[in-house]
Design a protein that fits this description.
Layout lengths: L15 E6 L2 H10 L6 E12 L2 E14 L2 E11 L2 H9 L2 E8 L3 H10 L4 E6 L5 E5 L8 E6 L14
Parallel strand pairs: 1-4, 5-8
Antiparallel strand pairs: 1-5, 2-3, 2-6, 3-4, 6-7, 7-8
Length: 162
């Protein structure tokens, strides 16, 4: 029996590259001078995320820019417990994750679990769906984020977190 892959078909398409930065405004200014952007900035509060199995609060500032078929996400840590802060403390600024949109988050998490890959951080969206950062950085150094958008998702408004 062939091995079942975690991500197949459209779900294997990289949709976003996430980069952790120390100073969001300075990073936007620099990248804009190189021709990237425009960036949309959002302050995002996660009231009840799960980080390493514990329920926590955290806040980040995000800058999002569509660059062809990929979205570039810049993440500036603000406060609370998050893997973004851990990354910044351990490695400094840099490529943090690649994102994949999935049809069913729980089914995808179950497939990762069967491969021995743990959830580093997870959050739920108001209206359904959610996101999870997977511990895929053990080999290759890149975290994978998997996202199931809520049925009423509007990219102009983004999502709200439970």
């Amino acid at each position: 029996m062939p091995e079942q892959k975690v991500l197949q078909g459209d779900e294997a398409q990289i949709c976003q590259v996430g980069v952790v930065v120390k100073d969001l405004d300075k990073s936007i200014e620099f990248l804009t001078s190189l021709g990237l952007g425009p960036f949309v900035v959002r302050n995002v509060i996660h009231p009840r995320a799960t980080v390493h199995g514990k329920t926590v609060f955290y806040q980040v500032r995000l800058a999002l820019a569509q660059q062809g078929s990929l979205q570039l996400e810049l993440i500036e840590y603000q406060k609370g417990d998050t893997i973004h802060k851990e990354f910044l403390d351990e490695k400094g600024e840099g490529l943090h994750h690649i994102l994949f949109n999935v049809k069913n988050l729980q089914t995808t998490l179950d497939k990762f679990a069967r491969k021995g890959i743990e959830v580093l951080q997870q959050d739920k969206f108001v209206g359904g769906g959610g996101l999870a950062y997977m511990g895929t950085d053990k080999i290759g150094g890149i975290i994978m984020e998997v996202v199931q958008r809520p049925p009423d998702y509007d990219p102009e408004k983004g999502v709200r977190y439970e």
